[in-house]
Amino acid sequence: MHKLALLMTAVVTLLSSLSSHAQSSTEGAAEGANKSPPRYNLLLAGGNLRICSTMQSNNCDDTRWIDRNTMRIERYLSLSERNMKALLDDSLWPAHRRTMRDQVREALTIIKQRVNQDVMSEYTFMDEFGRRATAYVYDNLSDQEMRLIVDHLEMPTPTDRQEVVDLNMNIDLASRELVRGLVLQARSLTAEGQRPKVLVVTAAARDSLGAADFYTRLLESAGADVTWLPIDAAVNSAQLTQRCAALADIRVELLATWQRAKVHPARHQQQLDYCQNLTAGAELLRDAHGVFFADGSAHLLRQAMLTPLGQPTALTEAMYRRLQNQSLVVAAMGGASAALTARAMLSGGSSEMAMKEGARAADPAGGACDLDDSCPLGLNQDSLTYHPLGGLGWFSPAIIDTEFTEKGRHGRLLRLAATTSTPLALGIDEKTGLMVNTRTGAFEVIGRGGVFFSVAPVQNDSAVASTFHYVMAGSSGRFGDGDIADVQLATAGRVVTEAPTTRFLSDRGLADSLRLLCNERDSVTALDGQFRLTLLGDDSTTRQIAGGECQVMNARMGIAWEPQKNL
Fold first, then answer.
1. Distance (Å, rounded) from C-alpha 349 to C-alpha 386?
2. d(CA 21, CA 5)
3. CA distance 115 to 124
4. What is the CA radius of gyration of the chain?
5. Sign of the C-alpha dihedral, residues 142, 144, 145, 149?
């Protein structure tokens, strides 16, 4: 039999095997103020929010309120001789990248001559760097090398002007709804008329100090009293090894961030004081009604909240107890959401590489690591990586993925769930939130997109398949035994403005193909290069339109890699 026929037979077999399943399917002041527990105490959001601020004015409905003389509107870099000398030091560039280092020196000199000044906005710098004379250098830098350059050139944050966030001016209403969702649930834990106290954790960000101002003001604009909790992977390591004095060096080692104490001196001092006071975290948590984990890397957040042996720190354990007794509301955005799972924790990779290579129990590779030969052995920048012991362990029903439909992450989620024999996995779309009551299992979807649920996935070397559900904002239900139950599908939804596509490995091609199932079709096929998507429905499949999207319960899907089709 031809290889293609064998492969498609395997996909059909995997899909058929799913049909039977488709048919059967304490502590702290905040606690003392609690009048009734919040309806939902956990918010998992898909990330990629669009927030109106003085430094992101393109997200504002009106910009006349922004005062360039008193508000921070841009980040600035300085190509001074001092900064460039520190950046180009041999110790920062391995021997095999010294030629690239010399090309960077030439490129910076050209940029400086073109702009005719040392200081420029980051936007101007990037625009100049990408121009013809220096584009070759720009295009051949790894992500880490680019961060190295910007970190060394960045000027200190100004003390006389701050970034201002105004959610009332937000163009994107879904982003505003998600942020206010946390504050709304946390408010139920306060006395009447009080603003909830929320701790902001930026540990998932590579530069946790640089992210602190924005997220603090974001939650303040949403109606909370906000305190930055200065924990990150570097602080956690420094505390555990009693090396707080070496915090700046540990940042370079663990986070690949440079010159942060120079750029954010006040935030650095906060971290240093926190590191040296082992009771500081407990003291801040005692009065909190909510904790907000900012977007970023699941891997970095895990490093910040657990010991090297994977055990929770005292702060992490205290947060978990408060979450469980419903005296604390927790929200996480993007990659931080993925870190809250008790199941295998997804940390990076693409659907295409997941289908070709499978899943690897390893730390994530760096972006464009192939350019500077820094990829870990056997991995590339798109390899699907995960932590087999899970994340923080606060959400037990499923593996979590984010920015889901928009980036075509179905393949990587199904591959990981099948590899780890995890019965349930979920993907949350951008600007979409899954609100959960961790005690009862009840959930509700808010925002603008939907949540995808993979049930009992199976695989072979070249294909994955699963029963699945896809529900839009406005839907509700509860988590059951390896599935969801009592689902009420949304009856209204957003108007789809994106152009239709069949690209399902990196774009929203699956959602576009899914509409055909809501149009009296029981079988839909789409091609994306060497990959084939198959969607199946039958009498057990529930279908319902919400706005411009198709919601389904108990449908089946398969993705197959067909390299022979191009021969």
1. 9
2. 26
3. 9
4. 24
5. positive
**Distance, CA of 48 to CA of 28 (rounded, Å):** 32
Angstrom distance (rounded) from CA 275 to CA 109:
40
Q: Across 312-414, where does the E strand assignment appear?
A: 329-333, 345-348, 359-361, 384-387, 399-402
Q: Which of 414, 422, 412, 418 is nearest to 343 (CA)?
A: 422
**Torsion angle of alpha carbons 480, 482, 487, 492, nearest 10°?**
140
pLDDT (0 to 100) of residue 182: 84
Model pLDDT for residues 474-517, shown as the tens digit of each residue:
999 999 999 999 999 999 888 888 899 999 999 999 999 999 99
Using CA atoms, how far apart are residues 370 and 509, in angstroms rounded to an integer?
Answer: 28
* Those residues with Cβ within 8 angstroms of residue 548's Cβ, 6 or more apart along the chain or in another chain: 493, 494, 495, 496
Give the H or E element holding residue 472. strand 463-472
Token code pair at residue 361: 């129990």
Residue 183 exposure: Cα atoms within 13 Å on the Cβ side: 20
Other C-beta atoms closer than 10 Å to the C-beta of 273 total 12
Residue 253 burial (CB count, 10 A) = 12
